[in-house]
Amino acid sequence: MTNEQTRLSKENCLKRIAAVRDALYAVSGKWKLPIVVALSEGPLRFKELQRALEDVTPRVLSKELKELELNGFIERREYDTSPATVTYALTPYSDTLKQVTKSLGDWGLQHREYLMEKSRELSPAQSDSLHP
C-alpha cells in the first residue's frame, strides 16, 4: 500500500470517527433512544412516557425531551385545554433512527444472551460482573 492510499484510509477513518461522535452526541445518554422507541407507538403525555420508561426521573426525562426536540427527533404539542395538555410525538426525521434502534435492540438481545452464556461458564463471583 502506498503512502497516499494509507493517508486516504486514515482520512476516511477520521471522517468515520467524526460521524460516529456526531451521532452519539445526538442520541447519547441512557434515555434518548428508549424515549424514541416508546414514542414509536404514538404520541404520549409526559406522565405516560415516564411510566413507559419506569426508572427515569421527571427532571432527566424533561432534559432528554428538550434535547431530542432540539435535534429534530420529537415534537412537543400543546393543546388549549383546561388543564393544559402536552404530548410528545416523533417527527418524520426520527424515521432516520429506525434502523439504529432496530440494530441496537437486536444486538442488545444477542449481547444479553452472550453474557448469560458466559455467566454459566464462570464461577458465581465472576459472573456477577457480567450481568447488565
What descriptors fit this protein?
DNA binding; mainly alpha; flat; WH-like_DNA-bd_sf; 3-stranded antiparallel β-sheet; DNA-binding; single chain; 3 strands
Descriptive overview:
InterPro entries: HTH_HxlR (IPR002577), WH-like_DNA-bd_sf (IPR036388), WH_DNA-bd_sf (IPR036390). Residues 13-116 form the HTH hxlR-type domain. One of its GO terms (molecular function) is DNA binding. With 132 residues, this protein is mainly alpha-helical. The protein has a domain at 31-93: Arc Repressor Mutant, subunit A, CATH 1.10.10.10. It contains six helices and three strands, in the order ααβααββαα. It has helices spanning 3-27, 32-39, 46-53, 58-70, 98-121, 124-127; strands at 44-45, 74-79, 85-90. A three-stranded antiparallel beta sheet has the order 1-3-2. Strand 2 and strand 3 (85-90) form a beta hairpin. It starts with a helix and ends in a 5-residue tail after the last helix. The model has no long low-confidence stretch (mean pLDDT 89).
Question: What's the total count of β strands?
Answer: 3
Percent helix: 55-70%
- H/E order of the elements? HHEHHEEHH
Count of helical segments?
Answer: 6
What percent strand?
5-15%
CATH superfamily of the domain at 31-93, called what? Answer: Winged helix-like DNA-binding domain superfamily/Winged helix DNA-binding domain
CATH architectural group of the domain at 31-93: Orthogonal Bundle
Radius of gyration, in Å, reads 20 Å
Shape: flat
Q: Major sheet: size, sense and barrel closure? A: 3 strands, antiparallel
With strands numbered from the N-terminus, the spatial order across the biggest sheet is 1-3-2
Query: Cα distance, first to last residue?
Result: 42 Å
Give the CATH topology of the domain at 31-93: Arc Repressor Mutant, subunit A
Query: Regions with pLDDT < 50 over 5+ consecutive residues?
Result: none
User: Can you identify the CATH class of the domain at 31-93?
Assistant: Mainly Alpha
Sheet/helix structural class: mainly alpha
Whole-number mean pLDDT: 89
